[in-house]
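INFO  loader      accepted 1 record
INFO  loader      residues=182
INFO  predictor   begin
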Amino acid sequence: MNRPIVEISEAMLAEAERLSPEVRVARTRMSPVDTLGGILGEFVLAQWLTGDWQNHEVGKNKGRADLFGLIEVKTSIFPFRENLNLVVREDYGDKFKEVYVQNIIDVESRDNKTIKPGTRAVICGFATHDQATSKPPREMNMGWRSTPYKAFQTPISELQPMAGFQEFLRKVAAEKGVNLDF
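INFO  predictor   done
INFO  writer      dumping tokens
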């Protein structure tokens, strides 16, 4: 499948590092780069969708979806493979989001999650809330250990392609009365 790629710039990385302490949430983190990756994922989608990564809402969207109050951006920091999943934690699954977009920040190895300028982010596809939560939640195996929570897992091969995302988003935005400025 043809998946959009966004290269993480030095400016994106610096701004994500600056914002990280402000937006870190008190929840179970399985990696020390979870917060940084989440911020970069929002930057990546803003770059692809609007042409400018600075059109993000990081720090201004607490309690809402990540972009436009409609899009929940899910980001994993892992070497990209086609057999990865869109993951929605079970405890978040009852918080309705219009649409989920999965990004994979394609690092060199699962053991070295260093994100440098030039690192590729793969925008894997999207799913509606119903699609993302349709299968029973399962324990997640992180290779060396299981997570302390269950998660809804949708293979990225089952996600809708990003080629149809803007049309889908505009339709949902119109139904919800949300003005998209791009």
